[in-house]
Amino acid sequence: MSQFTSILAGASAIGGGVTAFGQVLQGNAEKEAAEFNADIADQEATLIRQGAVLNEYRQRKRLAEATGEQVGKFARAGVSVDTGTPLDVVADSISNAEMEIQIDQFNSAQAARRRVSDAKQIRRQGTDAMRFSRAKAVGTFLTTAVQAGSRLSKEKGKVKKEKIGQ
Q1: How far is residue 43 CA from its own chain's centroid?
Q2: How far apart are the first and last CA of the chain?
Q3: Deepest in the core among 34, 109, 154, 163, taking most CB within 10 A?
């Protein structure tokens, strides 16, 4: 067996190992990037929820101001707010504002759930990328080992034939 063939087989095995190691590193990097992006999506979901709380506070404050303004206008006009149409107007205003608050809360909750779902999907994709790269690395390593072994085996066969033929 020639020394050159042994060196080539060894170099091939080392090259396959380096390629496999690179594939593992790539998968790990993809998983880390996915985790980073998923963390951002989680943070966005938290911000959406916090924004919804602040928005509700702002809407309720406006509602109180508008209701107070309506009652004040009725009182200045000498209309009693205790019963009848003026009370109905105030009640309708409150009801409409409450409905808008509920709609905004629902929309914010949906947006936050979507971002949390996005984060889960991003994490899953990162994990899948890491697993795929590791499987690919194992395949690369095994293929390289088989190729190196095949080269050595062929060279040994040539050496035996040469010795028999002498």
Answers
A1: 11
A2: 15
A3: 34
Report the C-alpha gap between 31 and 131 in whole angstroms: 9
Q: SS3 helix, strand, coil % of the chain, rounded to 5?
A: 95, 0, 5
Question: For the chain, what are the domain ranges?
Answer: 3-165
Number of alpha helices (DSSP H) and beta strands (DSSP E) in the chain = 2, 0
Fold classified for 3-165: Helix Hairpins (1.10.287)
The per-residue pLDDT string of the chain (166 residues; one tens digit each, 9 = 90 and over) reads 567 777 777 777 788 888 888 899 999 999 999 999 999 999 999 999 999 999 999 999 999 999 889 888 888 888 876 767 888 888 888 999 999 999 999 999 999 999 999 999 999 999 999 999 989 888 888 888 888 778 777 766 665 656 665 5
Per-residue tokens: 142: 């095994």
